[in-house]
Specification:
The chain is of the alpha+beta class and 85 residues long. The protein has one domain (3-78). It is built from 3 helices and 4 strands. Strands 1, 2, 3 and 4 form a 4-stranded antiparallel β-sheet that branches. β2 and β3 (36-37) form a beta hairpin. Bound molecules: zinc ion (ZN).
């Protein structure tokens, strides 16, 4: 169980970036146990230089602690460096 960037599975696994608005350039973080995205805003844009958008799960959970699943706490995700880069 982990949270990691969604693996590339064709264009359907890449989304519109919430910052620059370009299509098929945004990779979302996904919970590998539930196969649910953390949030539509949690991910990274391919356009590192011209856009640079990156919202990692930890930053999102700091802002939205009610979205933290009990399993994350039970597995000490916060102590373990609990998502892949
Ligand atoms: Zn972007």
């Amino acid at each position: 169980m982990s949270i990691e960037l969604e693996k590339y599975k064709g264009q359907s696994s890449r989304y519109v970036c919430p910052k620059c608005g370009r299509s098929r350039c945004f990779t979302r973080y996904i919970d590998t146990e539930t196969n649910q995205y953390i949030d539509n805003s949690v991910g990274i844009c391919n356009h590192r230089n011209s856009c640079g958008y990156h919202l990692p799960p930890k930053a999102f959970f700091d802002m939205n602690p009610e979205k933290i699943r009990a399993e994350y706490k039970a597995n000490n995700f916060f102590e373990k460096g609990w998502f892949a880069r």
